[in-house]
């Protein structure tokens, strides 16, 4: 039973890791990175290492996800497209905060 649960968690981690590499949306890639961290923390709980699991959940999913999201916002890659579905605009090359240089 425990082996099958661990196998499912490993498969979830592998799928999320592949999604990080293949997703075009940076926001979705950050979310997939957080999924990898959370799945790894659950795997540590199953391996009876709760201290490592709490550290991985705090750092791997929480802190690194926030840092990556803030980096996307700082680089201007956080904004969504106007009309062609959900996606992200490429960085416009503008140095300051505010509007879009392409408009």
Describe this structure in words.
- The chain has 103 residues and is an all-alpha fold.
- The protein has one domain.
- The protein is built from three helices and no strands.
- Helix 1 runs antiparallel to helix 2.
- The longest helix is centred in the middle third of the chain and has 26 residues.
- It is flat, with a radius of gyration of 17 Å.
- The N and C termini lie far apart (56 Å).
- The mean pLDDT is 82.
Relevant terms:
103 residues; mainly alpha; 3 helices; 0% strand; flat
- Could you say which structural class the secondary elements and strand pairing correspond to? mainly alpha
Q: How many domains, in number, for the residues?
A: 1
Secondary-structure element order, N to C = HHH
The helix content is: 55-70%
The major pleated sheet works out as: none
Runs in which pLDDT lies below 50 for 5 or more consecutive residues are none
């Amino acid at each position: 039973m425990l082996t099958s649960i661990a196998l499912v968690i490993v498969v979830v981690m592998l799928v999320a890791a592949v999604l990080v590499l293949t997703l075009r949306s940076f926001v979705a890639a950050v979310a997939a990175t957080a999924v990898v961290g959370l799945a790894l923390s659950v795997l540590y709980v199953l391996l009876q290492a709760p201290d490592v699991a709490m550290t991985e959940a705090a750092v791997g999913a929480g802190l690194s996800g926030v840092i990556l999201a803030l980096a996307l916002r700082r680089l201007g890659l956080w904004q969504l497209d106007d009309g062609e579905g959900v996606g992200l605009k490429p960085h416009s090359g503008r140095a300051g905060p505010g509007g879009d240089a392409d408009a």
